Amino acid sequence: MDGANSTDAQESGPPCRRDRVRDPSRWGPSVLDWLLPPTCALCGAAGLPGLDLCPGCLADLPHNCAACPRCALPLPPDQAVGATCGRCQRHPPPFDAAHAAFRYEGPLPALVAGAKFRGRMNLMRLLGSCLLRALLEQGAARPELIVPVPLHPARLRERGYNQALEIARVPARALGLPIDARGCARVRATAPQMGLERAARRLNVRGAFQVTAPPAARHVALVDDVVTTGQTAAELARALRRAGVARVDLWAVARTP
Ligand SMILES: [Zn+2]
Ligand SMILES: [Zn+2]
Question: What's this model's pTM, rounded to 2 decimal places?
Answer without folding.
Answer: 0.85
